[in-house]
isopentenyl-diphosphate Delta-isomerase (Saitoella complicata), 241 residues
Amino acid sequence: MALSNASASISLDSDTYDPEQVKLMEEVCIVIDENDKPLGSASKKTCHLMENINNNLLHRAFSVFLFDEENRLLLQQRADEKITFPGMWTNTCCSHPLSIPSETGSDLPSAVLGVKRAAIRKLDQELGIPASQVPIDKFTYLTRIHYVAPSDGLWGEHEIDYILFIRVPVTHAANPNEIKDVKYVSREEMQSMFVDPAYEGKFTPWFKLICETFLFKWWKELEEKDDLAAVKDEENIHKLA
C-alpha cells in the first residue's frame, strides 16, 4: 500500500478549515487490511485523503446507535466546521478508535473492546454524555461494515465500521464544534425522513448504506423482542457499495 505525498503537501490552514477540526486531524487511526487485521497506524488526515483512499488505505471505525427507553434513535447533524461531510445528518456518533493500546485489538474480542472504549470517549467529547451513563457492558456489537465514500474531491472515508447499539437514558450537551443539531426519532419517523425530499442528499453515506441494508430490521428486533441476539453477525464483514 503506497501512501501519496499528499499528506505532507496539503496544508490544513486555519483560513480554510476550523482550527479545532484541524487539530483532530492529527489523531492516529488504526490502519487495517480488508480482513480487519491491523497493519500499523496513520494520521486521521492521511487516512481521509482521497488520494490515499484510492490507493486502498483502510482504517478501523465505529458507529454508535443510541436509543432511549422509547426505542427512539438519537440522530446528530454534523457541524458545518467538520472537514468531511459537514452539515449532514447521521447516527448518534461516528468516529475511530485510536492507535493506542486500550483501543487497538489484533483479534475480534479485543478490537470490539477497543471500539467500545473509543465510543464512550467520543460520546462524551461530541455529545457531552458522561461515561457513567453509557457503561461498556450496555453496548451490543452487531457486525462490521466495509465501505468507501468520497466527501469531496479531496477528502473521504474508507473504513471497516463496527456497529454498536446501546439503549440507555442519557443527558446530552452537544459540542457545537462537532454537532449542529440533535433529535430523537422513532423508526417510523426515520423511514419518513428517508423519503422526504427535504432530506435528500443530507445523510452521511455510511448511515444511508446502513439504513438501506440493515438498520430497520435491527431496530424492529429491538422494539418487538427486546433482544438483538437473532440479528448479530459478529464474524462477518459486509462490503457495501
About this structure: The mean pLDDT is 93. The helical segments are 6-9, 19-24, 44-48, 50-53, 108-127, 187-195, 205-225.
